Amino acid sequence: MNKVLWGTLANAQDASVYKLLNLHGMEVAIADYGATIVSLKVPDRFGNVEDVILGYDNISGYIGDTQYLGASIGRYANRIGQGEFVLDGTEYALSRNDGKNTLHGGFQGFNKKLWRARLVRGTEETIEFQYESPDGEEGFPGTLTTRIVFTLTATNKLRINYRSTTDKPTVVNLTNHAYFNLAGPHGPDILEHKLSLNANYFLPCNKTQIPTGEIASVRNTPFDFRASTAIGAHIHDQSEQLRIGKGFDHNWILNAKRNNEMAPAAEVIEPISGRTMRIFTTEPGIQFYSGNVLKNCIGREGRAYQPYDAFCLETQHFPDSPNRPEFPSATLRPGEEYNSTTIYSFSQSHAPSDIK
Length: 356
Description:
With 356 residues, the chain is mostly beta strands. Helices cover 3% and strands 39% of the residues. It has helices spanning 59-63, 240-245, and strands at residues 2-8, 14-21, 27-31, 36-43, 49-51, 72-73, 79-80, 84-87, 90-93, 102-103, 116-119, 125-133, 144-152, 157-166, 170-171, 175-176, 194-197, 199-202, 216-217, 229-230, 249-254, 263-269, 275-281, 285-289, 297-298, 304-305, 312-316, 331-332, 338-348. The longest helix has 6 residues, at 240-245.
């Protein structure tokens, strides 16, 4: 593992980047600012190792970032409607940073915090980040202590484990917001990537992208990714839901989720490079976002990122769950532990005929 001093924040705290490496050429770099994945290098079918996520050249890009590139998201990933919820009879008003809604934890979510890093010694490359969110931060109740452990395995898997405890009843929903393009930094957009989702249902949204409460079948809709399908195959179909999200930006309900078990969630294949990413998670849902509102975000090497330059697959509890008792509960109480794991597994198809 390598540690590199990255820069100094406005409050004179130093930020650093930690690199995890394995013997197959895979490398992941994670900053303590935002517990952010700043680089993820993966070999293709020809042995070329390239970065498969969007990012910035230096810390100033992440400080000014509004797209959550690579960031750890909390306290609550996705949206909470009207920026408020009631828990045990008490109404909590949150920061409203997305119109009238709260998005990804508010104005200064976990992506804008400096996390404390700790090397975890063992047989695998592992780093842990910890942050203590004080009671009332962005309006959320309870002092929430969170640890995120990143592990790079010898078999090209990136495992992320999230654990939180609280001293007061609260809500919590954590994820990572990496933007993937498996073609690499100089490849085409993601519309030809083949995506499959282990989900028969998704959550339609209203015009402010809050779930309506309907649980809709994907059958005969553009949202059917049960079989491997090009992301761009139906992204421009005439659909009210696609108009609302300006493309795909919805939560899919993962199949057969019971008792926090690890289960397959998604697979993505990039046809030219052969890079394949499979996602496994203990979470009940996954947000597929097709990068619809990336617009002139100046990223690595001065590149202006544009819509569909990358996609996100955010494992999560459902959006607006604190206001939807019929959804899986996102409530965490004293004496309990929030414990969530997601695995990104990378491999390669070695010939074009391997890709259907």
